[in-house]
Queue: 3 jobs
Job 1
Amino acid sequence: MKKRQFNMINKFKSISSAIIVFIMILVIAAMAGFAAISLNYTSSTAIDNAMAYSDNITAQVNFDIDSYISNMKNISDIVSKSSDVQGLLFNASENGATKAKEYTRLVTQFQAVLDSRADISNIAAVSDRNVGVVNSGQDDLISYKQLSRQEWFQNTMNNPDGITISNSHVQNAISGSYQWVITLSRPLIDKSTNEIHGIFFIDLNYSVISNLCNNNQIGNKGYVYIIDSSGNLIYHPQQQLIYGGLKSEHTDDVLNSGSSSMMIGTGNDMRLYTKSSSSQTGWTTVGVSYTSELTKYDEQTLLLYIGLAIGILLLAFFAADYISRGITMPIFNLLKSMKQAEKGEFKKAMVPVAGSNEVSQLSEGFNSMTARIDELVAENKKELEEKRKSELRALQSQINPHFLYNTLDSIIWMAEAGKNEEVVQMTAALSRLFRQGINVEDEEIMLSQEIDYCRSYLLIQKYRFQDKLDYEVKMESDVGNVMIVKMVLQPIIENAINHGLKEKGSKGNLTVHAFRDGDCAKIIIRDDGVGMDEDTLLHIFEHHKVNRSKNGVGIYNVQRRLHLYYGEEYGIAYESSPGEGTTACVTIPMEKADDGSGLPPDSEEKGNFPVQNKSGLPDNSPVQGGTP
Amino acid sequence: MKKRSGKRWIFFVILAVSSAAVLLALSASAKNDKVYHMVFIPKIIDENNDFWVSVIEGANMGAKEGNVELEIEAGPSEEDWQSQNELIEKAIAEKPDAIIVAPCSYTESTEVLKKVKDAGICLTLVDSVVNEDIQDLSVATDNIAAGRQLGEFAAGYLTQDSKVALIEHVKGSSTAMDRETGVREGLGDKAGCIKETIYSGSSEERAYELTKELIFKYPDLDMIIGLNEPSAVGAANAIKNLNLTSKINAVGFDSSLNEIRLMEDGIFSGIVIQKPYNMGYLGVQQTWMHLRGEKVEKNLESGSELVTPENLYSEENQKLLFPFTGNKN
């Protein structure tokens, strides 16, 4: 973990974030690319389709108008060339009966046209002498003179040889009628003089055109309009607004444009214009569609894409999260276990293993490793305990043989002197001493027992040293039940006698005092022997020093066992100065923290873990210093 | 673990923000496409009244263009402000986005129109206004200017000694008052020629009868000025029927096929036409823009034109005078 390779992924706090971020970026990029391509595609096809559709519509409208016009032309050809018209209008020599017949035939003809063609509103042939036929003969034509004031009439006269098609206008040829029409007209020539003396006209009902355009709407807002060759409106669905000055139409732009379709305007007002011109009339039909309407679907599609993108993004997020957790969770567990293992809690360090991927294999490996280490630790612990027990056993047998010889010598001496009483007491004390030391299974005994042991020992020593030794043993009653490691006090007392009192010329005093001090029990062993200098005091716990001494159990050994058992804060403390005597203070806890293992926490294993082989064990042999 | 969940938070925030943005965009586009509901209450719905037919056509065009749901209702006559007020009350209850009214009365419509405002509904007045400036928008002919136009034209036919009669439509309607003011301004020093003012109640028959009486009362009458279409047509018909065409000049307001015929017959020497189609269209269209929060002119003029027999068939006037449909008289 601490060693990191430098790459992109390591810039993230965790592998799972890295995975999520990369997957999200990938998804967003893919969605954006996809949306851009398909939107571009749909919008260009939409415009292409609209163009094609608009083309069709304008061509259709043109075709329809052309068919109306060509129809009117046919009628005009038939009527204007008929002999009835010539006769009725211009032949002054005909009699009334003939004229009446001609009139009737023309009226019948006109009536037939009007009946068959709903799109034709007026049909008339009239001479400059106000002779003529209008429709079915029931309408009153205004005078030729009045007629001649109208624009379409003048245009017709300016085009003597052909057919004139007017713009849309109000036809006021019949008095009282004001219809919007488109007029097809031609001059009538008196064949006798070859001069123009009349006019024929046929009116196309304007509503035909407006219906035609209205029925060919493009989309909701799109429309069709018609302009003549000079850009005047023939029809426009919003012509009222255009005439009222509220709207304008791009007639010139459209008319002058070389291409048949063009885009005009910007933004929401962008419009697609397609035009188609008629050869019959010279008019241009223009289809207009709003691109906003075409792209409306684009917006919807875009929104759909964005919605979809968010959905997929969410899915991708959860998927990425799931996958990355699948990878990182076992690693994270492993990491946690590793930390437990570092603390030495191998039982808790087991990693749950699922599946058989690389991480699972790693976890399995880790599990078997910790299991093995756990076994080793247990073995090690057992060995240590064994070692301690054998050490203790050795201690029992370590009672200085000199002590035994000297004691036995003293008993012999007392027996010879007939001091039966003393022999009994001393032998009893010796016997008690050994009995007390026999039990090696229990490492701890009650302090009272340990004190008893000391009493036995001191009693024997008293018999040996007679008047040279005075001792006093005191134990407060509240510490009698305190448990203490065996064979702690006797070596200290032995040390005090052998090194302190024995070398003193005069009588020596030794006191043992056990009492409670807060959470601790203290046993003070004081002698008024020769004392120690500072240097000796400093090295008293070093076992090589002990090795040199004559007595068996080193103070080092005692101290080590106390530390081992109760922790570093407990043990022996010495105070001494040369000539002043020595005070040893043994401190043990009132109640030992029971961890069940017999090993206090933070025991000597600390820092030596995990692998501790036999060569790493402390090399001080339990059997030490016992040899004389 | 904390760092991981922190990262996750950021992702959630990003996702939440983007979702919110999409929702906003959706609702914004929905707002743009909002279909507004408007109620239009003209003075009258009468297919023989070209003026109001045209206004309604224009309104419908405006509604179509703005995708507005437009409801049109009117009382039985132009004078009947009580019925109109009831209709306005009814419209308020419907809670539309806007109510567009051509108020019948300059004074009697005010109170009920205030209720429209109080209900938080956008109020647009067309054609006429009321005695208090309460509307959100108004679209109307500048009747004073139109009256002045007619007055100036009429003055050309008059001398200081001429006798003129005014036929107004409804006493107390803003259009009548403004037009009279305008006509008097236009006549200038000949305003004193006005000998009599009568009220037709916007009825052609009544105008006809009253004109006949008037002609008997003033045999040397030189001119009759009709301040709206029925008044002018009624007066002109009376002149025609009494064969006084050459003696009495008629001028008037508004256009109708009747008026055009009478002009062709030489009875009307001039009429001032409004632009009713524009009025109706602008009434709806401006209201729509206002509702969408766009800036519009509060009191919009829809314009007027003077038409004489000489320019009757000019291309521009043709298009203003003759409706494109429904004219097979």
Note: Chain B touches chain A through 39 residues (CB under 8 Å).
Job 2
Amino acid sequence: MNKIISKEFFSENVFKMVIHAPDIAQSRKPGNFVIIKMGKKGERIPLTIAGANTDEGTIDLVVQIVGVTSHKLSKLNVGDTITDIAGPLGEATHIEKVGTVLAAGGGVGTAPLLPIVEAFKKAGNRVITVLAARNKDLLILEDQIRENSDEVIIMTDDGSYGTKGLVTHGMEEVIKREKIDLSIIIGPAIMMKFAALTTKKYNIKTLASLNTIMVDGTGMCGACRITVGGKTKFVCVDGPEFDAHQVDFDEMMMRLSAYKEDEAVAYENHIASLT
Amino acid sequence: MDIKKIDIKQYYKDQRRTEWRTDIRKTMKTKERVAMTRTKMLEQDPEIRNKNGLEVNLGLTEQLAMQEARRCIDCPDPTCISGCPVNIYIPKFIKKIEIGDFLGAAKIIKETNSLPAVCGRVCPQEKQCEAQCFYSIKLNQPPVAIGFLERFAADYEQNSGQMATPEVAESNGIKVAAIGSGPASLAWATDMARMGYDVTVFEALHEIGGVLKYGIPDFRLPNSVVDVEINNVKAMGVKFVTNFIVGKTASIEVLRERGFEAFFVASGAGLPRFMNIPGENFNGIFSSNEFLTRVNLMGAAKDDYDTPVSLGKNIAVIGGGNTAMDSVRISKRLGADRAMIIYRRTREEMPARLEEVEHALDEGIEFMNLNSPVEYIADANGRVKEMVLQKMELGEPDDSGRRRPIPIEGSEYKVPVDVVIVAVGVSPNPLIPKSVKGLETTKWGTIVVNDDFQSSIEDIFAGGDIVRGGATVILAMGDGRDAATGMDKYIQNKIKK
């Protein structure tokens, strides 16, 4: 169990791993995540499940290298096993036929967006997806998103691919053009904040899938707490999806930075220890 | 049930009449026994222990244990046993200690208690067995130190290298499962294995032991001590599956298809409560669960572990329970100059064990009683820097029988803090109740069970904090044992049909 079946780099810092985890592959639904931990002294980090193959009993994880744990994970090879994987956690996305769905993925957020796009498409919705990245090299899973969307709009910060501009520009273009019944946004907190402001302007029901700091991932610790509609919620058990218009993204960003300095130091030391 | 009670009384009588017990009673007059003073627990010096993570209580020496054992007069009607949720045959094991048969003493304890080294350390004996001791109820004198003696026997056995694994009946091949691997489950699993069942325990975290591992710190209960007891349960054939969240990784329905005949839900009271006051989500403010999990389970305070934890010079812990005491004492050990307990009532009403409060005081913990936080203030980066406390006074007793704290208007003042740990209680973990249709729960989210600890769904039993909502290790273990009896009855009846 937990054996790495394949590993593929999408860009220098983003990679996909297919991992043998049959129970999780069987039970997972779009929107779910897992907690992984490597070695006895490792930390527990949440990673959203990007896909699964029930016949093979595998799950797909798409990971961006941002710190010690994601770096350690990137150094594991096919055939290695991950010490601990627990899941699927969180509430699954509520999938139904609503009409037209506007999906927006920023950076590595495209990975968890994929199964959701896939499910909404299967449920008979018209799905328009806006993918945004800093540049062409950082854009991931474009082909898979295209297969499951009626239309795909690509936005890059530097204009190296698709249209130059932010995710919100692409979204607004669609919103002005046709009636949107539901919007789903996944990406960095700052991107979700502005994407949510955009859809709010047009009164479009919007869901955001949040990725916060977690420890146990089962509701036990409250590290992942955020404010939604003035109430404290736990991303791990109440989410990870919430009404994007109710989420206090500023607080979320503040909480995400809780260990920023410690993490930077730990990462530097970790990299130094490898050379 | 009544017949069982008569039988057990008769059993105690017969046992008491055995030759070795009669002989030992003759070695010393009762009058001499009761004239002895209660043994004191050996402790690490407070000024040394508040800077290391080692165990505070050091245990009794063989000599001290035998001396304390002599205080027990081996009553004809041993009332102490009625105070024990798992009915340890207390006088018998104490008399074994008196004659120096320490391994024999451990064996007797383990007939009904699978975690003696744990219980000897964390049980509130002063409210249980020791409260029912002849000394307490008849002589109004300090009771026999049953807890110290239990710990002594258990430690002696652990250190002897001759751990006795409880005997198990021949396998009946019937698969049963527990959800959660804390004290309730471990007690349940031991009894089920003893009866010959094929036992699997599913644990959501990466470590076995539940609250014994993530909650209780090493200076009160070393993880190594817990591991020895868990290994003993493993030696009985109990299988443990970590990283398996029943209701998520696989549903109870799927586990039924995999051949499990009955389930014991002991998923604990995992959800932390917050006070919902302004600023409570600032960085540097934790639930006690998070703080304890980071430090105890994840090794956050150790350099070579990856998990971080915020620390600082001024650490405030909100609450007056055992969890609050654990959190504040850890804070002191991790270098806080000022480790404070903020409690809205007074020492009298504190739910923490007296021993823990006294240890905390000895270690230099500051108790700010009759205070309650009303707001937190952060720096520009969102890191907490001050708490606003409001002074309280005590009014009339409330539902809990304790005097109700009443805020004093206009008494607010600020105290600098680097870290705040909120230890104001926990709620039952909703994961299982949410994932099982038709499972009856109370409005507090605890699972409703009958006298056999059976839930509204016949093959699902439950015990510990998921039923009680927040109690003690030993009450959870008592539930586990009773649930095992109830589950066996259910399965045997089903087979007869």
Note: The first strand of chain A starts at residue 4 and ends at 11.
Job 3
Amino acid sequence: MLIKKAVDIPSSEITPKNVYLNRRKFLAGTIISGAAAVAGMSLRELAEPTNVLKDVSNYNNYYEFSTDKYEPAKLAKDFKTQPWSVTIDGQVKKKQVLDVDTVMKMATPEERIYRHRCVEGWSIVVPWVGFSLSELIKKAEPLPKATFVEFTTVLDPNHMPGQRTGVLDWPYVEGLRMDEAMHPLALLCFGMYGETLPNQDGAPLRIVVPWKYGFKSAKAIVRIHFTDKQPVNTWNKSAPNEYGFYSNVNPNVDHPRWSQAKERRLGEFFKRPTLMFNGYDQVASLYSGMDLKKNF
Amino acid sequence: MIRWFKPIVFLACLAPLAQLGWKAYNQALGANPIEVITHSTGDWILIFLLITLAVTPVRKLTGQLWLIRYRRMFGLFAFFYAMLHFLTYIWLDKFFDVHEILADVAKRRFITMGFTGFVLLIPLALTSTKGSIRRLGGKRWQALHRLIYFSAIAGVIHYVWLVKADIRKPLQYAFVLGILLTYRIVVWALPKIRAKKTATLSGRRMELPRG
């Protein structure tokens, strides 16, 4: 309740300065611990053990910082996620530029424990915090023409050393078909392990699409664009024969250079068999009648 | 060179393995230890192959003839790390699943290339003794050991084909290998070009009286 007051009155006037400066963390912390209190979420449980935070926050494919997975934790340490605005535009009734704090308060956050499978053949189990991406989409009121949603990561080469290289075509772009984006599993995420998202895991705002390979889950999002054209996602542009638009986790469709039949869960010695749609069979109907070998 | 120098170099060549062992013991190999072991042993194969290939040029260019006594050791260390790399793959990655390994070697070009590079090193390691040089004869032994060029090329291509987008590091290896191989081409071709030049020059001299 005290927090509500702090929001109504300019916080600079009544809040101690250090708390004021940490407003983002403070608010997010409150929202996120609230999320843990939401009971009865079926997505809060997974039979497999959750990975430790240390692994999830020190092993990151975040090419904006480095192509070495152990580097982003160091390189993203001082990355500024405040102020941060998110542009919602394209085929929507409500085109707007929102502060990320506003986005975070659009719906009640939940904790969701998801499997996360990287296209490289490793996987983790992460307790994310956020709400269904569909909540934001509904509020943006997409027009009938909007059949795809495109996500753009921030372009900030001064603070993202990886963007000073030509390894990928910056800024990073990812996309989903509208029905994929509307699926309740698709998460708009701003926290994990009951805390704000660490910078190296995509703060302040990312998506998590658990049935697709990790690179589909764009990080540090600044733009959500609704369109009638299938977005050209960055990895698809980089190597079209290796990374498709759909990139659903599929043990039966190999990456041209390696098998996708098994994966190494971080912290485990033996490999596990990879599950179709990463074990999220509830999305299968989105692709009924589609040749998933062709639409890889 | 001082007698105790060789054992020190030998121990230094074991340092990468010792470091891996130490990190493993202290659980400091990060979130994906097997990947770290695979990448680290892979790096050291290429480094030792390049060091081995650098011995002759450096020796010739600096006149430090004693360097040749270290070449076999460096080459054998390349093979040693190649065995560790290969063992990591068949054990920790494939868990001795022969069917899967064969499918990999046949289907994945980067595996095919890496495997080729490894197989090419086997005869070199087997014939690395002084006795083998005697038995094969210097010329034939030397010809056989030129396989190291192809092994190193295969190793670098294996690395280039393996990375997702960032080929900067494999290209660094390719660059150094390129220099070391170019040196050989120059050394091989230069006398021929010189001989040809002398031939044409003397040819012209021969023509002079006729003109």
Note: The two ends of chain A are 49 Å apart (CA to CA).
